[in-house]
Amino acid sequence: MRFATYIHAYGMVAPASIPASRAKVVARRYHMHFPGVVYLFITVVLLLGAIRSQNNLLFWLFGLAVGGLIVSGVLSAASLMGLSISRLAPDGGVAGQPLRLIYRLSTRNWVLPAMGLTIEELAGRSARHAATWPEFTPTITTFLARAARAPTPVVATCTPSHRGLLTLRLVRVWTTFPFGLAKKSVTFLLPGQVLIRPAPAAVPATLMAFSAGRSQSRHTLRRDRTGEEFFAIRDHHPGDSIRTIAWRPTARLDRLVVRDAARTPERRVWLKVQPGAGDIEPLLSLAAGAAISLTRDGYSVGLLDAQGSIAEPISGGPSSDAALLDALALWGSDPGRQGSRPGHMHAADSLLVISHGDAQRGGLTPLTPGVAMPARSEEQAP
Predict the structure, then answer these.
(1) Residues 6+ apart with CB under 8 A from 67
(2) In sequence order, what DSSP letters do the residues of 115-156 get, joined into one string?
């Protein structure tokens, strides 16, 4: 590597395809809730008053109260029969930004509609059904007025507090339809996960100017048949495309010649996150911001861990940015994953080291060529 740059991030504040998963019913139950408890208390008072006074009107009122409670329980249970649900979750989210989960509910019930439905994610009490979403957001809940036979979408929005792997397991749908007296629920097993990426931090403009200037100054045009910029004229060789023939020079020279195109060599940058005594999250946010900015400016970006091993190789293409952000999202959660990725570091590659420290010259400290680089294994050597 020819040069390295340190970014000091101490104190910085960071500003798909969607797969649908099907559900399996794991539990149906009634719940005690405040309106039902109050109604039951009044029913008991009516019974005691009727027994004490032997008043026929109180007996009639007691019978109506019991009938209302029974009807409420039966109808609420029947309305949830035949209910099905699926969840559409994005592949990734960003810490501190709204995350949308889409639920699609439908019912096979022809007689009783499913109305007044509340959909909520459950944390899971047992290790078998434990989910990690409570670590990211207090609640995930939404409401649907009526489920039809055709799938009806409803959106739940939450804001993850930090990066990591957000897992989902159990979804509970409950209703107090029709009278609000009996609360009936059905719980579905609906596994899912969303990878929450670190929020990209603002990257200093001096970094981009410095990197662009140093990188562009050492790149020269190279011969390449797939490029678009003219490089030179050469003799025709078997296998050359007829579209590359330069007809005017061919007529003048009386032999077949072809145009060689030129391309600019790939600009490669490695980001190295160097944890220190401070919080690592600002470093990862700055690394995410630098990766997005560099990719947008035409760089191919890879990621190194603190030991200098490849955490995410340089791949290029539209998916390279997402792969690098995913690696930052899982930073530190899977020690076996980091340092085990195949890839090569070239002598012309640039290195950006993101670490805590005292900012110098706007947070940018260039290192001179020849500085000791991180140790590389034989697999990583070019």
Answers:
(1) none
(2) EEEEEEEE--SSGGG--SGGGT-S--EEEEEEE-SS-EEEEE
| pLDDT of the residue at 255 | 87
Give, in order, the Cα–Cα distances in Å from 372 to each of 38, 267, 312, 339, 376.
Answer: 75, 21, 22, 19, 11
What's the pLDDT at 359? 39
**Counts of helices then strands in the chain (DSSP H, E):** 6, 19
* Helices 34-53 & 56-80 angle (0-180, nearest 10): 150
User: Domain residue spans in the chain?
Assistant: 4-14+200-219+266-367, 32-197, 222-263
Sign of the C-alpha dihedral, residues 283, 289, 292, 293?
negative
Residue pair 140/72 in contact (Cβ under 8 Å)? The answer is no
How many other C-beta atoms lie within 10 A of the C-beta of residue 63? 14
Lookup: tokens for 42: 């009044």
First to last CA, the chain: 11
Q: Which two tokens stand for residue 371?
A: 């500085």
According to DSSP, residue 293 is labeled: H
Q: What is the pLDDT of residues 315-347, one digit of tens each?
A: 766 667 788 888 889 888 765 555 555 566 666
Query: Rg (Cα) of the chain, in Å, rounded?
Result: 32
pLDDT at 120 over 50: yes
pLDDT at 365: 37
Helix (H, G, I), strand (E, B) or coil at 287: helix
Specify the pairing of strand 92-94 against strand 183-197: parallel
| Number of other residues whose CB lies within 10 A of the CB of residue 317 | 8
Mind listing the pLDDT tens digit for each residue in 233-254? 888 888 777 888 888 888 888 8
DSSP assignments along 181-247, one per residue: S-EEEEEEEEEEEEEEEPPPPPPPHHHHHHHHHHHHHT---EE-TT-SEEEEEEE--TT--GGGB-H
Name the residue with higher pLDDT: 266 or 295. Answer: 295
The CATH classification of domain 32-197, taken from the options 2.60.40.10, 3.30.540.10, 2.60.40.1920, 3.30.870.10: 2.60.40.10
Are 326 and 16 in contact by the 8 Å Cβ rule? The answer is no
Q: Is 357 left (phi over 0), alpha (psi -120 to 50) or beta?
A: left
